[in-house]
Amino acid sequence: MSEVNMQSLSLENAKIAVIGLGYVGLPLAVEFGKHRPVVGFDINTKRIEALQAGHDSTLEVSDDELTEAGHLRFSSSLSDVAGCNTFIVTVPTPIDDYKRPDLTPLIKASEIIGKVLKRGDVVIYESTVYPGATEEDCVPVLERVSGLSFNTDFFAGYSPERINPGDKTHRLTTITKVTSGSTPEVADLINDLYASIVTAGTHKAPSIRVAEAAKVIENTQRDLNIALINELAMIFNRMDIDTEAVLQAAGTKWNFLPFRPGLVGGHCIGVDPYYLTQKAEAIGYHPQIILAGRRLNDGMGAYVAGQLVKGLLLKRIHVLGARVLIMGLTFKENCPDLRNTRVVDVIAELSDYGARVDVWDPWVHPAEAANEYGLDLIDAPQLGAYDGIIVAVAHKQFAEMGADAIRALGKSNSVLFDLKYVLPRAAVDQRL
Q: Catalytic: 335?
């Protein structure tokens, strides 16, 4: 690396552009924006307008925190990021309808950056990918669009995001940050850059591929552990044993892992394993355990619906035309994040049985539910109207209601299924 490039890559001269202002990008832009010049870029003009007005609809960043980031400005104009020399990509990496990785957002972001990329610039990716994606899929796009040469004219890094939506304890600055770079010098620079805002410290991986692999197995490991507990719940249900009671007893051992059964959705756990399995298959290895866990977890929505149907039939309630209330639509509690929520699987399955399903979630904007899943949310449930009730998400509002208030939403003979252990065991008819 030339001396000229090293000077342009100094920590003091870093001018950052964060590409993608969702759950990952906005907190990052805000933290850097407290200390140095940052442009937060997103192609969603409505998102930019809301942030410029001082409000984050995802609720990950408060209005006060936006105000505190005095060096941060928001834009949907490419010209506003042209003067930056450090580009951090935080766009989604979803899967398609066939469970295949969809790198489209990542490729488009790389094309955008390529149009303004200059000698000495650094591009850092945070989006979850399979090992090799940064250098094999993204860098060639940067080279093609910019006309520059990798590791001669510009450089790359990978620092996987570890954002946990809705979590106000484990936040960007309090979670150890894994970093990496395409050369030893760039790796040091990227590590120092993140260390300047992450109080929990950093871990510099020996290569970009190692950092990519570390990220993708974090959530694959969780996915498999939850799949095991889900399968145990199915077994214990057939044996008429309360799964939660079993897990509490087993949890008295110091090294027992405290996982719980449930629906596995969201932007990470229900998606990331497919990035690893596709890459494995591309190099000639067919994963068995990982895909088995994915199949089991992907089938939990149908299992939950089937259990509720059994409960209705045992109480001699006709399933066809039965009214069912689903409490919660987001993929996790106390946040408005609908990405890859598997509650929709429960809704679809019950609808196939002929049930009439109402969905209630005080955290979700109705327009977003309609746009993402074609669902019309109800403003509030009717008292005494439902044959079946599923507490699908552990929102604080539902916990505060308590068993009696939730029971009051159902008919006298209704079935109450607590999917998230929000209520005492004695107060519900069914649990996982």
A: no
Asked if pLDDT for residue 415 goes beyond 60, the answer is: yes
Find the helix or strand (DSSP H, E) in which 203 lies. Answer: strand 202-204
Cβ burial, residue 367 (10 Å; 0-12/13-18/19+)? exposed
372-376 long-range Cβ contacts below 8 angstroms, 24+ apart: 372/338, 373/338, 373/344, 375/329, 375/344, 375/347
Which pLDDT belongs to residue 6?
Answer: 47
Choosing from 84, 138, 268, 335, the catalytic residue is: 268
Give how far Cα 182 sits from Cα of 124, 129, 142, 161, Å. Answer: 10, 16, 14, 18
Q: What is the pLDDT of residues 359-385, one digit of tens each?
A: 999 999 999 999 999 999 999 999 999
- As a whole number, mean pLDDT of residues 333-340 equals 92
> What separation in angstroms does the CA of 136 have from each of 107, 236, 382?
11, 46, 54
CA distance 242 to 236: 7
Average per-residue pLDDT for the chain? 94
pLDDT tens for 337-364 read 999 999 999 999 999 999 999 999 999 9
Note the residue count of the chain. 432
